[in-house]
Design a protein that fits this description.
It is built from 16 helices and 122 strands. It is mainly β and 1463 residues long. Strands 49, 52, 55, 57, 58 and 59 form a six-stranded mixed beta sheet that branches.
């Protein structure tokens, strides 16, 4: 056991193996011995509570030969439920199929798990259902999770979280009690869990405006727009409301602008966050909105802008925001600039009153002369004149008189302006105003080229937009608007590798343009671009001239150059370097070449992605990059300076490399290479010895079979020499030799790796193979154990074949399987067929080619078959004798496959086949081998006379029909018919057309033989009869057999149409050929077959119950039916009578009696119902359960059961054990379809006994009478409990009461409430008449009844009702009835004495007189005397006056053996 070593190969996913006596760092082991297992040292420790099983695969070895791989399974269980949950994510409005990945419960084996969705903790924003849109599930199982039928469906609300809780219950399933692990109780296990669902919200809703109110701003002031004025909300994600963007539309602010506090003005977009954080404002910039302003007006004006709110995907409708501008109450000034139509370059213009005006709110009129305008900044391109003199100030009346003018200085400026301020009576308004002149230029100079960007850059295959930063020209005398497009670029030499294209808004795309304007370059609505079309060049250029609209041309021809930048990834050629082992080398720039001529001139950056594994990169002597540091970078400049160096770490590696990515930026275009590898070749130094590694220290091989010595057996390596330089030498034991292609005493590693070297042994043995490897300077040696075993075959399966005569059967691996003892490799087995033993068939391949040999692979593939060929030889057995051959197997096996041939046979004949002929009336049928075959008789005869007939062909088979058929004839002579005639179908029977449905023909079979001397002789004869069945032609009309076709149907129930309801019979037609049709459905219902309405059906469908009637209304409905057999037809009227559905109780069903000796009581026959509907649909539901019992249906407790279960007596009332009750109560709700009943049932436990009938008590002479001892027979109950039952009175008699009398004790009249069964048997129980009872004195007798409760150990209490006839005593109203009369003369009743003779007193009255001590002494003395006297004499009837003193004042108390007191 210590040599058997177990090694774990794989597995142990959820635990580990430990050795009790071994402590390791990780406390786990992977190998152990059989002795450790036997001593109980190996333990499995579970590390994962979420799983229920684990396993591991191991191999066991004795040190020489390993056994096949085996696996060991481990079951993990807990006494508690382990609930594991995993939250999941669902798309908004989507669904998710829950699996065990989300909810998994690990329960002990044998428990069935049910998961209940906790009430009140269901998903808030979704449902758990079995199908999309289905109702909420309340529970599901783990099988439902495995099948993917538990779905969570989100309700499409805007909530990103949902959750639900669930309860888990596991019960032991019926029949699985034996599966529960030992130590776990069979009680229900419970647990709970909860799941959180993350909802991936979908942006599917349009933002909505919350607040939208007007903004008030003071003229020339700023006002902030807050959320009170403007606010929006996105229901998809309320957290991202601040990211909602407002986009201004066509309408922008006219008299101001929108701005942000960060300095941006005249903005066109802003966000909700700008509004929320008070960053957005409106700035008013105009005093009055138009030139028609009246100075006496004090009303304000408004501004507006249109906008839309977007979340990036959805936008709200356009809306308008209004700004109310509140006017100021101080001095105001209005200006209107001079348009260019009124002023040309070098001209003059007069400033008029409508262009500069001044107003002030004042109740006192102010003259225009009091307004003074002071110029603070003079015009730059002209002069102001007042009355033709230069001026820097003027008044309002000067303007009205048109004395103020402006003269331009002939410059190319297109605008001029001056600033001024207003004073009123020399009071400054502290505000400056600007007056603008627009000048109409005169085009008289050529344009000037200001900027030509060279080079321009375009990405290969893409376009380059031409903007003002690429081409810019200006004309000093051309205005910006509207003549800004008068500067025209004309291309004189177009680009060779691209075209110019222009796309104008609203005008489409124009290709290969030859000219364009500065306007098209400047304006963003026009896209003017160069498109690269030839991808094989890196440069392009074009030449152009420049002119303006009036023909002023710049004589120069301008040239522009374009550099075509390559697409990513950037091409980079890398050449590696060589370095001696342990040396260093400088990386040069020539090792990294960018093919692009322009990009190669730009200095880029090399970012190392993967550092060298066997060395380091150094820059300027500093280590920056190796296998342990973070990635770093170097530049082209570092390479040019020779600062980048690779230093090898001296390891025995042949190569090294590092990965990098080269990045270079041209303008704004970043170009990157792919991640490239820089190779470094290491020139090694031979300073390491070779290493010989043995992978299989012990090698098993087969005798005679070469075993390749490849890398699976051994390998070698040399850290500093190539593998091809290693040479191997070897030594072998006797009887073994090396098989090599070179046939030398050495071989190389390449020959070994290619499988060209093998070892072969000629006999069974054990030895050692010695190996020696050398690299020329160093060497290494090792040994390999050889275990040579002979290869043998064994028969695993050797079955038999079974086939019909003349048939074939496949020889499969289930029938024939021979394998070798080589468990690791497939050994092909070849079979040779012995022809001497294969007598009645042949072996074929693929059902076509006959073969004498085949392989086991062909057998496994089902390609080999046995075919039976000798059908005349009536043998049921054949044998296939096979011999095996396999390479390297010396011993061959002999295998026999038995073939069983199923020969045809007839149960009623000794012929092989004798089947009746079937012919149509008046038709014919030909005999065939399937109806008549007697070849077995021929073969049997031949075997009997085989000494005389060497060949079967010498025995002949003849058929003959000695008599003609009764209802037909044959087409040829019926004397000597051969089997070939039968097989060819030339012998036919012709029916004569009569109405007979059968015929019978005599048949003789004769076997003859041809002998050389005697000729043909008869060997055997057989007499048979050939039956003929005739199918008659339909020539008889159908007849209806039902006298009055009708059926009663209960409303609400479908009724199947039966054969007894409707039957039509035809002598020459089958029920399937009789068809019914109806023109319309009955008025009170519909006929159906399956799920479709039936307007046609057959008699066979009626007979098989496929036609049913579905009532729709109460009453009678007629159905006109037409029936036909195809040739004849008839009609009948069928009546459906639909009656009311009823449900009633049968008999008295309000009382259930339970025998006292029974542990249960079936409800039948006490509770029974009747209905004219389906009795199987009557169901009982317990509405008020019994208090002292339970209902069981079969063996399970239940509260709902059917009438059929009641009828089968599987529904029982079971009283609770250990509870002393004798009555119970329950209520039932009974329902059959739409009919229902309420039933209240009392349960009574009936005493186990019998009450005697016809008992009469005569009280005419004495008012008391003993009850007969057999009035209540409880003998069976007493024998079962071994103790006499106790009887308590539940309901006293109506006319009297019960009392007790004992031997030697005089009768007494004390009423008792209980007695023992022995008292009744001994007739010690008396019935005493009560004179005060409500008795009719005229009645001669009364029926007395009372109820008792019988109690016995081990049984429930039982009730018995006792009754007997009483003849009452004479009634005397004057006599006192305190004491019953004692004038009885009946000798059977002892006298109780007269009232004068009766005396009684209380002994306790003596206590005050004599004292307690003396009283106790007297009582004790009387007791001793009584006991001594009573023990020494037999009890006998008291002769003198006696009295009985009750030892207890309660009238219900009585002693079992009461004391006797004598006076």
């Amino acid at each position: 056991n210590h040599t058997l070593q177990y090694t774990v190969v794989e597995g142990l996913q959820h635990g580990l193996l430990v050795h009790r006596l071994v402590e390791t760092d990780d406390a786990s082991i992977l190998s152990f011995t059989q002795a450790d297992v036997n001593a109980g040292y190996i333990q499995y420790h579970s590390t994962d509570k979420r799983v229920s099983n684990d396993s591991f695969t191991f191999v066991v070895s004795n040190g020489y030969v390993p056994a096949p791989l085996s696996s060991f399974a481990i079951e993990l269980y807990s006494s508690k439920l382990l609930v594991h949950t995993s939250n999941f994510t669902v798309r908004e409005g989507g669904s998710f199929a829950l699996t065990r990945q989300q909810i998994n419960v690990n329960a002990p084996r044998g428990f069935t798990v049910t998961i209940f969705v906790s009430h009140g903790k269901e998903p808030v924003h979704g449902t758990i259902s079995q199908q999309l849109g289905g109702p909420m599930l309340t529970d599901f199982t783990l099988d439902d999770l495995d099948s993917g039928t538990v779905l969570y469906e989100h309700d499409d609300s805007e909530h990103d979280r949902d959750r639900f809780a669930f309860d888990v219950e596991a019960l032991v399933a019926s029949g699985d009690e034996g599966l529960v692990p030992e130590g776990i109780p069979h009680e229900s296990l419970r647990s709970s869990g909860k799941l959180t669902i993350s909802v991936q919200l979908v942006n599917d809703k349009t933002p909505e405006l919350f607040n939208h109110s007007r903004l008030e701003v003071v003229q020339m002031k700023r006002a902030y727009i807050t959320v009170a004025h403007l606010s929006a909300h996105d229901f998809d994600d309320t957290d991202l409301d601040e990211n909602l963007k407002y986009i201004l539309g066509i309408s922008r602010p006219f008299y101001g602008f929108l701005g942000l506090t960060n300095g941006n003005t005249h903005i066109s977009t802003f966000t909700q966050g700008d509004i929320a954080h008070h960053h957005l404002y409106y700035q008013n910039t105009e005093y009055y909105p138009n030139t028609e302003y009246q100075p006496d007006s004090d009303e304000g004006f408004f501004d507006l802008f249109s906008f839309s709110v977007t979340d990036g995907e959805w936008s709200s409708p356009w809306d308008v925001f209004y700004v109310d501008v509140v006017p100021v109450s101080y001095v105001s000034v209005g200006t209107l600039s001079v348009p260019k139509d009124n002023l040309v370059e070098g001209g003059s213009v007069t400033i008029k009153a409508q262009q500069i005006y001044f107003t002030v709110e004042s109740d006192i009129p102010i003259a225009d002369s009091e307004y003074s305008y002071e110029v603070t900044t003079s015009p730059q391109h002209g002069t102001l004149f007042l009355r033709e003199e230069k001026t820097t100030s003027f008044r309002q009346d000067d303007i009205k008189e048109e004395w103020v003018s402006y003269t331009h200085d002939h410059s190319d400026s297109q605008e001029d302006k001056f600033e001024f301020r207003v004073t009123l009576d020399s009071t400054d308004t502290s505000r400056k105003y600007t007056f603008t002149f627009h000048i109409e230029p005169i085009d008289d100079t050529p344009p000037v080229m200001e900027l030509i960007k060279t080079p321009m850059f375009v990405v290969e295959g893409s376009s380059k937009h031409l903007g003002m930063s690429d081409l810019l020209a200006y004309d000093l005398d051309t205005t910006t608007d509207p003549d800004r497009d008068n500067l025209i670029y004309t291309i004189v030499t177009p680009p060779k590798h691209g075209v110019f294209m222009r796309e104008r808004f609203g005008q489409g795309l124009k290709k290969d343009i030859k000219s364009f304007s500065q306007f098209e370059i400047n304006i963003p609505n026009i896209d003017l671009y160069y498109l690269n079309t030839n991808l094989s060049h890196w440069n392009d250029s074009f030449e152009f001239t420049l002119r303006d609209s009036v023909g002023n041309v710049q004589k120069a021809v301008y040239s522009a150059r374009l550099v075509i930048l390559p697409l990513n990834p950037l091409s980079l050629n890398v050449t590696g370097v060589s370095v001696e082992e342990g040396g260093e080398v400088v990386l040069e720039n020539g090792s990294f070449v960018v093919p692009h001529p322009y990009v190669s001139t730009i200095s880029g950056e090399f970012r190392v992605r993967q550092a060298p594994r066997h060395g380091s990169l150094m820059i300027n002597g500093t280590l920056v990059i190796n296998g342990t540091t973070n990635t770093s970078s170097f530049t082209v400049a570092d390479l040019l300076n020779g600062a980048v160096k690779y230093v090898h770490d001296g390891e025995e590696e042949r190569e090294d490399w590092f990965e990098f990515c080269y990045t270079v930026m041209v303008e704004k275009h970043t170009m990157k290479t792919r991640v490239l590898r820089f190779p470094i070749r290491i020139d090694s130094v031979n300073d390491q010895p070779p290493v010989l590694q043995i992978h299989r220290p012990s090698v098993s091989l087969w005798v005679g079979e070469p075993l390749a010595l490849d890398t699976s057996v051994f390998s070698s390596f040399d850290l500093d020499r190539p593998p091809q330089s290693l040479v191997f030498n070897y030594s072998l034991p006797e009887h073994c030799h090396m098989v090599s292609m070179r046939h030398t005493l050495s071989f190389t590693r390449a020959e070994s790796g290619a499988g060209e070297v093998a070892v072969q042994c000629s006999r069974e043995m054990q030895g050692s193979l010695g190996l020696w490897v050398s690299d020329g300077e160093y060497s290494d040696t090792a040994n390999i154990s050889l275990l040579v075993t002979p290869l043998r075959l064994a028969v695993n399966r050797n079955g038999s074949l079974e086939l019909a005569i003349g048939g074939s059967a496949a020889i499969t691996s289930e029938v024939l399987l021979v394998t070798s003892n080589d468990r690791l490799h497939h050994r092909e087995v070849e079979y040779q067929v012995s022809p001497l033993h294969l007598l009645h068939g042949r072996i074929v391949l693929d059902l076509q080619q006959e073969v004498t040999s085949f392989t086991q692979t062909q057998v496994n593939e089902g390609r080999v078959s046995y075919q039976h060929t000798k059908v005349d030889y009536w043998e049921s057995e054949d044998k296939i004798r096979l011999s095996t051959y396999t390479q390297y197997v010396r011993d061959s096996l002999l295998v026999t496959v038995n073939v069983h041939i199923r020969l045809p046979g007839s149960n009623r004949s000794e012929l092989a086949v004798l089947a009746p002929l079937r012919v149509r009336e008046g038709g014919h049928v030909c005999l065939s081998q399937s109806t008549l075959d007697a070849r077995n008789i021929r073969y049997r005869t031949w075997k009997t006379y085989n000494k005389n007939f060497t060949d079967l062909s010498q025995v002949l088979l003849w058929y003959s029909f000695p008599h003609d058929p009764t209802h037909g004839s044959f087409n040829s002579s019926t004397d000597r018919i051969t089997h070939e005639d039968i097989e060819s179908g030339s012998v036919c029977y012709f029916h004569d057309g009569s109405e007979s449905n059968n015929d019978s023909i005599s048949l003789d079979i004769r076997i003859t033989g041809y002998m050389m001397e005697g000729g043909e002789v008869e060997l055997e004869t057989v007499d048979e009869r050939l039956e003929v069945f005739v199918t008659l032609i339909n020539d008889q009309p159908p007849l209806i057999l039902t006298p009055e076709p009708k059926k009663m149907v209960v409303e609400g129930f479908n009724a199947t149409l039966l054969q007894s309801d409707l039957q039509v019979q035809d002598q020459d037609s089958r029920p399937a050929d009789i068809h019914y049709t109806l023109p319309s459905q009955p008025g009170n219902g519909l006929l159906y077959m399956g799920k479709r309405q039936a307007y046609a059906f057959t008699q066979e469908q009626i007979n098989t119950g496929k036609v049913y009637f579905m009532p729709t209304a109460r009453g009678k409905g007629n159905c006109n039916l037409t029936y036909t057999d195809g040739n004849f037809s008839g009609n009948t009227l069928f009546v459906f009578d639909v009656v009311k559905h009823t449900l009633d109780l049968q008999g008295k069903s309000d009382m259930l009696s339970v025998p006292q000796n029974a542990t249960s009581a079936p409800l039948v026959p006490y509770i029974n119902t009747t209905t004219n509907g389906l009795r199987s649909e009557t169901w009982f539901t317990v509405m008020v359960p019994p208090s002292n019992g339970k209902f069981f249906v079969a063996s399970q407790e239940g509260s709902k059961f059917s009438q059929l279960e009641v009828d089968e007596k599987v529904v029982k009332y079971v009283p609770n054990r250990g509870v002393k009750v004798y009555e119970d109560y329950f209520e039932l709700y009974i329902q059959n379809r739409n009919r229902s009943l309420d039933l209240k049932v009392k349960v009574r436990v009936v005493a186990w006994g019998r009450v005697k009938d016809n008992v009469e008590l005569n009280l005419e002479n004495f008012p008391s009478h003993r009850l007969p001892g057999d009035l209540l027979d409880l003998q069976e109950l007493q024998r079962a409990s071994h103790k006499p039952p106790n009887i308590s009175i539940l309901r006293r008699p109506l006319y009297g009461y019960l009392s007790m009398s004992y031997p030697l004790v005089v009768e007494h009249s004390y009423e008792i409430s209980s007695f023992r069964y022995d008292d009744l048997n001994n007739e010690w129980v008396n019935y005493t008449w009560d004179p005060h009872s409500p008795f009719n004195t005229s009645a001669p007798s009364v029926l007395e009844t009372f109820r008792v409760l019988v109690e016995s150990p081990g049984n429930n209490p039982g009730i018995a009702d006792i009754s007997f006839t009483v003849i009452p005593p004479p009634q005397d109203t004057n006599e006192s009835t305190d004491v019953p009369s004692s004038s009885s003369t009946d000798p059977s009743f002892p006298s109780t004495g007269s009232p004068d003779q009766q005396a009684s007193f209380s002994l306790f009255a003596l206590v005050p007189i004599i004292g307690m001590s003396t009283f106790l002494v007297i009582i004790l003395t009387i007791g001793i005397v009584f006991c001594f006297t009573y023990r020494n004499r037999k009890p006998k009837q008291a002769s003198g006056p006696t009295f009985h003193v009750s030892p207890h004042p309660s009238p219900s108390y009585f002693p079992h053996f009461p004391p006797v007191y004598a006076m």
